[in-house]
Protein 1
Amino acid sequence: MSAGKLLSGLAQHFLLSLKLNFRSTQALVYGYFVPIFFLVAFGSVFRGEIPPLLHQMGQLLTISILGGACFGLPTALVAERERGVWRRYRLLPVPTGSLIASTLLVRLIIVGSAAAIQILLARLVYQTPLPGHSGQIFLAFIFVSFAFLGLGLLVAALANDVPAVQALGQCLFLPMIMIGGVGVPLAVLPDWAQRVAGFMPGRYAVDLLQRCFTDPNGLQGATFSMIALVVIGTAAGGIGLKLFRWESGRRVNRSTFAWMGIALLAWVAVGLAATATGRLDPVQPDAVAYESITEEQIDQITYEGLPGDNELVTRLSPPFKPDKTPERARAFAHQLKTWSLGYAEDPGQAVRNLLSVAAIADIGADLREAEIGRVVFDELRARYEHDQLCHILAWVILRPSDGQVITRVPELRLRRNLSESMVRERSVLYAKKYLGRLLRKLPD
Amino acid sequence: MPPTATASVRVSHLAKNYGPVEAVRDVSFELFPGEIFGLLGQNGAGKTTTIECLLGLRSPDVGTITIQEIDIQADPARARQRVGAQLQSAALQDKITPQEALQLFASFYPKPADTDSLLTQFGLTDKARAPFDSLSGGQKQRLFLALALINDPEILILDEPTAGLDPQARRELHRIIAGLKSAGRTVLLCTHNLEEASTLCNRIGILHQGRIIASATPAELIAKAHAHPWISFRTARPLDSARLAVLPNVTSHKPEGNGWQVETTEINRTISSLARILEADKNEMLDLQIHQPTLEDVFIELTGQAWSEDKPEETS
């Protein structure tokens, strides 16, 4: 068979499988209704947070992908195998793996669309900010789906019937939900559970996806999580493909369990590697570093030598008059309100992120740089109480190397990639201008 | 078949074991162009295993299989392109339509048959857009036959195509299968239905406990058997056993209900003699039935076992 004919056949199989999925009530319920249910459930629990759900999006998306891959995929595969659909497929003059690959791709689309719906609904219903790293969320999704679809394929190979899929799927699902950092955040789990979670793929999936929402550096520094998911997914998927059964009737034997053991060895290997590299040290709730700054330290900060507000660096508009805010400043303020990295869990980091925005606009000589400086100041005052904001700005000034810093913000149309040291330096200058004004040591 | 004809399918000394169970032993047969060859056997006889080896779905432990001179084990994909198959216990997704199924399977072949023509040929045009789970058993089997023809093959392998169908649907499918032969296709028909085998097949191989114990045309098989025709009848007044013993060509007789069953080597002579006896005794024939030997008799004679018309064998 020619490659063109094979691809055309597989494209037909892909499209038809997708179409059949949307004709099945059961598939729609499990594929879309259940993820929405989880979104509403999480939204109900975490509705008090500002903004709601931002720090749970990694968990929420992981649950959806895990469910779609470890239940949806094997349920569909085993149901078709039990009916004899795959027995009929096997007569086709196509390589064994190609139809399975097509089926995996269909599931990837289904799971991906469910995740996208969750993100959009969270935005519409709870005003949860969209991922700060919109391109990287796609990459993270691919890594997570790769691992979980591999596991789903293994479940399909091991399960003799659909009820067995449910049983095996729960063996994967429940531990990850309860102690794997997927359902319950790692920080609130006991130390032993956090270490156990390091042996499960769920922890690394949440890590990757959550970074795209709240980590200023996105997936930078997430190499270990990516490798962990690739190792686990490759082992499970490869063995699942090897053990794939075309028809019912054939049952698992001892060698099957041996192969399953090899797939689980990948989990052990990842866990041991994480332990050896210190990645499984217990995660504690973030320390609030700025609280260690004293009033005396704040008083000692001086404001001499700051550039003027109309000079080349750290430009800052005068306060906008009521109802006379320039249109482009208003538009930027609106964007900033939904910018997820401005809502980092640690207020200190969140303020650093917002200061970075002003700094990047300034260094990049953005036409709006002065207005952006003012919008950021207004936003900081709106979000934080006076004393807390003063402590945080003082922390930025006194410990400029602490925390993380953003060097480009394409989602706010600040696309230049700048050096970290420059952004840190300029952030300190803005922090001084803001703090001086808050303490009335500088005129505004 | 003409001895010079080249076999479309050649199975030689096929053997296949499942652990300690010998599913098929030393099975050999050939299919010639334009004929229907029936593989007749009861549950567990090895029909499905033979077919699965033939389609390359299972590897034989011993033996070779060639399809139009292509070794199925050496080049299964190429061999499969020459064959269309309808498998027992195969199905489709509940919500797929006949049209979609045909288009999907057609997309994998370089020169597929026209799907609309197949829908028409198998009487599925009205159901072209109906979901699979809404089709009747007969319609589903017709769809599977259409799928078997999607690559326009010269050789068709049909595994219990009429299993589970009502008599009307079964007759309809028989008509279609006979039509395939008329169109010049070679058909291997696996069945446990004696009537189906004797009606449709040019030649039959009887498979029993994994071996082919007889292979010939239905007429030759029956002719070779030692079974005789018999008559069964009832009379108005009782008829003495001694009167039947002297009837010409009668080999045995025994009571059957209120009448008699008489085995004979020459039905006409036996019946006319019986009529004369009844006339002389002023007795009256109430009813009379003539039974010719069938494949069932052949099977019983060859195996010593009764034939049971139970459900088709499960996939091994």
Protein 2
Amino acid sequence: MNAPLLEIRDLRVGFPIADRMALAVRDLSLDVMPGEAVGLVGESGSGKSVTALAAMRLVAHPGRILGGSIRLGGDDILALDERALRKVRGRRMAMVFQDPQTSLNPAFTIGQQLLDTINAHRSLTPREARAEALEALAMVGIPAPERRLNSYPHEFSGGMRQRALIAMAIACRPQLLIADEPTTALDVTVQAQVIALLRRLARDLNLAVLFISHNLELVAELCDRVVVMYGGMAMEAASVEALFSAPKHPYTRLLRQCVPRLEGGQERLLSIDGAPPVLGQMPPGCPFAQRCPDALARCRSDEPPSRQLDGHSVACWVAT
Amino acid sequence: MLRLIVGRLLFSVATLLLVGLILFLLTRLLADTPARIVLGIEASEAQIAVFNRDHGLDRPILTQYLDWLGRIVLQGDFGKSFITGLAMNAELARSMPITFELVVLAFVFALALALPLGILSAVLEGRSIDHVARVFAVAGVSIPGFWLGLMLIRFFAVEWGWFPPGGFSPLSSGLGPHLRSVSLPAFALGIYYVAILSRMTRSSLLEVLGTDYVRTARSLGLPRWRVLIYALKNALPPVVSIAAMSFGYMFGWALIVEHVFNIPGMSRALLTAIGQRDYFMVQTVVYVFTAIFIAANLIADVLNRALNPKLAGAG
């Protein structure tokens, strides 16, 4: 087995709330192998986006990475200074964000923004850089890239903007693409196209993808492995097949049932009772214990360690 | 873009016409008619009628207005004062360049200091430079220009003799003396706007630095200066608008500063006119200031459309 491309170990990210650091990510560990697509799934506030931002060292002030390690291709990301970070960002790993409406600079053309990314990392002649930019646009399926180079973001539809952002992210051929809910702000039909695009890019460029989503269906379509997050912790990690066919963690099981299925003829949508814990008011023990139908007394006092179970990695006292 | 400029231009012209009309009507509504002022209260109705006929004041107001405006637009002739009989053009040519230069110098000084200061305090938010700039800005907006002017004269001119304590040396007397004579007034006039514009720049830039697209730029590993340019192009429009307004307001404040420094600009012309109840002169000066104000805003508009392609497209 070869070494992981992205290796996150015991990551802790905190935000100051009422004079103390509240942990948005608690001892999270995660691996992404080269060329592998890993889904990071969870409800809003589960810490999945913060994890993604931490991997890019983009956690916004006043949030802070408090502990753990993040390695990309063996290099310690947390030890890099700003200058070294700039060489990694956009070059070795890149990120696509949730809202394409606000993620492009409205005052510059798509071509300019794309060229700036290329020029930040590679010494090319203007002609070569332009050729690279055109190729990147063509790769993400933007029609008539020649013409689109001179367009401003407001002349693009939401789906096209997200494609343009993906083009910028892959323009310098990173090994890892972190996609933070890249389809949430898009129409359903466009969602499918963007997922198909990501799958194609991952295959063609041998790109590893960390795909963050609250949507299990999308994750199943794109990813090889899934990590389920809740309350800042990894609840369960397994291959897509294993997780869908035999979820071990009670939370994963309930999450599975919440996905509406047409063929099942379900009469009503299922939901999990209660609400996720709020940052800063995290209960002791397992963060899911309060909503868990199988919770034991122990679950409310002791944090469950992660353990291996039939190829799953599960953080639960009761899962068997 | 061209259509936009033409549209803005037409709008500005309409504004000027309207302001001109209002100004004209207001000066005509005053109880002191030019004839009374010139001929005195003992003048007979017949004498007044003659005066009015000689100066065309017996015509309908609209005719008078169109005649006045027509001369300005077609011949560049601002007419003659009814009171002093002096040609407005000569008055303006004498005093306007001085005031204009003073304002331009103060404006350039304000921008040259405010932009770097605002950018630095946004980029280094919460660091010492930010706090120093904040204190400076509060002081800048709180200290009245005339008092600052007096203090500048007291120390930089009288005490240390670095600058002349007042008066105006024309360019013909040499560049050095000329610049020295306008330095203190330009500083006194500009410092308030350094404070305003630097704060504006800071808050606008801070807001943009927190946007998603700046995060995108950082996530792509763009150099720091490039990220700053990305942000600035989006942060500048409000600063440009305020700067344009400031340029217009400066003409008002310039009158006080000129008075303090004894500079023979518009201030002297205007104060003399007010003293003589020469409303025609007042009206002309106010009209010229209005035109400058509108022109500055027009330029700001065009500049902002150029900075923000979304607005340009919406034209």
